[in-house]
Amino acid sequence: MSDDFQSRVTAAMANPQHMGELPNADAIGTVGNADCGDMLRVWVKFKEEGGRKVIDRASFQSFGCETAIAAASLAMELIKGKTATEALAMRGEEFAKDLGPLPPTKVHCTSLVEGALREALAPVGAQPSPAPSAPTAPPPSLMDTFNQPAEKKGGVKVVFLKQIGRAHV
Q1: In 3D, which of 132, 120, 36, 141 has the Cα closest to residue 75?
Q2: What band does 168 get if pLDDT is binned at 50, 70 and 90?
Q3: Is 50 exposed, middle or buried (0-12, 13-18, 19+ CB in 10 A)?
Q4: For the segment 96-107, what is each residue's pLDDT rounded down to a tens digit?
Q5: Beta-strand pair 52-63/163-164
Q6: Can you point out the beta strands (E) in 39-145?
Q7: Catalytic residues
């Protein structure tokens, strides 16, 4: 990870914007990444402006790394004033452009933001056509992850503790 990238993430983390639950939200989206354990929920509130239904406010909660939090914070600001369709057309790279180029191990953070917004906004706006330059499959939602059959690899590992007297070690 470059020092420049890390300093930008640290700066974004020093004053994250739009964190926390948004009471009376019009739309809510939640996604998680089973590989890294990150989870993100977004809340969106709309208003009428010039005959259009646009995003008035958006907020998020994240159980994830600093990069996921920084990207979500930036994204909530970027989608304000856009229609659901316009916000759905945005891609992960746009959400993190102020952070600079992401290391390959952090690209999933912007996919998480994109996925949470898709979960919240898809019912509200029409799904945009995929961006021609970088078509990607949407990240799985938490519901998708739960509905997938369990694989042989990974999963839960059960470790039995030896009992000595009455105490477990």
Answers
A1: 120
A2: very low
A3: exposed
A4: 787 777 777 788
A5: unpaired
A6: 39-49, 52-63
A7: 36, 109
